[in-house]
Design goal:
three-stranded mixed β-sheet, globular, about 325 residues, two-stranded antiparallel sheet
Length: about 325
């Protein structure tokens, strides 16, 4: 996820004096914050990954309560080693996504922060990651490339991880019927399972922890490609047609409300969060130069990635 910086300065706003020492101190502080958040996220994903690994080894699809998860780690910290496949895969996908944004910003001379990871005591261990874009976008081409780079690079890392996991996952007939938490199946997972495990129902596959991490990466990619505000999808839409960005953002928020009522209540919370963050987009320094034909084709690629990753019901709880 990339979040744009402050609005453009006007001629009436005097620029602040350049203070190298102060800027260096801020950069060091930002680096320490980014490193600290990464370590916390590493711990939370290792803890969750250990529980996925234990369940997988015992041919179970259940996920212990979060309190039980961290209590087990407190009593047996060596269990964290079991979480490495899940944690390293997930953090690798998220880092690839954010570095895609970061290096696209560097290419266009746009100031951007280090990636900030968000640890979370949830069943996936994190709320993702983001970078802050600290200077205005130059033109539509730069905005499009920065918005597109993250999802594409993250997707390219997630696909082989999911494919490898599906190829080596266990077949446990009826395993889906015993799971207290049901993870939705994205279209990409259905296609890869049909290709790599023909004749095996997706519901009979006990997905390896690496595959579960790839699933989380795909879910994060789909969320970021929603065409709202300053999400990656919002950047892409604004670069394609800034006049329609606001209407498309509002239409997407309305669609999330419908999905929240008819499919998964979590979409309601996501719609409210996006509304609070804002559905408008900052103006560009040069918003007139159109995108070339090649980038319009890449926009179709972004749409295809979204359709392959999106799940109407990401999580469902089965009450026995």
């Amino acid at each position: 996820m990339s979040h744009a910086g402050p609005p453009l300065p006007t001629a009436a706003e005097p620029s602040a004096p350049f203070v190298p020492a102060e800027r260096g101190a801020r950069a060091r502080r930002a680096l320490w914050i980014a490193a600290g958040l990464f370590l916390l996220t590493l711990f939370s994903t290792l803890a969750v990954g250990a529980q996925f690994a234990l369940s997988y080894a015992q041919n179970r699809a259940d996920i212990p309560l979060l309190i039980e998860t961290y209590a087990n780690i407190w009593q047996e910290p060596e269990l964290l080693w079991l979480g490495m496949p899940f944690a390293f895969t997930l953090l690798g996908i998220l880092l690839a996504h954010e570095l895609g944004h970061y290096f696209a910003c560097r290419y266009y001379g746009i100031a951007a922060s280090y990636p900030y990871f968000i640890p979370a005591p949830t069943i996936i261990g994190t709320f993702g990651a983001f970078i802050r874009i600290r200077s205005p976008m130059v033109n539509r081409t730069a905005l499009f490339d920065v918005g597109l780079a993250g999802p594409v690079v993250g997707f390219l890392f997630a696909v082989p991880a999911l494919a490898l996991a599906i190829a080596h996952s266990k077949v446990v007939p009826g395993i889906a019927e015993t799971a207290p938490v049901i993870f939705g199946t994205p279209l990409l997972e259905v296609l890869l399972a049909a290709l790599l495990r023909p004749g095996v129902a997706v519901g009979d596959l006990l997905l390896h922890p690496v595959g579960r991490a790839a699933w989380v990466g795909l879910f994060a990619t789909a969320l970021n490609l929603l065409p709202v505000g300053q999400l990656d999808g919002g950047h892409i839409v604004y670069a394609l047609n800034h006049d329609r960005h606001r209407r498309i953002s509002l239409a997407c928020l309305l669609a999330l409300l419908v999905l929240g009522i008819g499919f998964w209540p979590g979409w309601l919370a996501w719609a409210v969060l996006l509304l609070l963050l804002g559905y408008r987009h900052p103006a560009l320094l040069d918003g007139d130069a159109p995108l070339d034909r090649r980038r319009h084709l890449w926009a179709l690629v972004a749409l295809a990635i979204f359709l392959l990753c999106f799940v109407p019901v990401p999580f469902a709880v089965r009450w026995f």
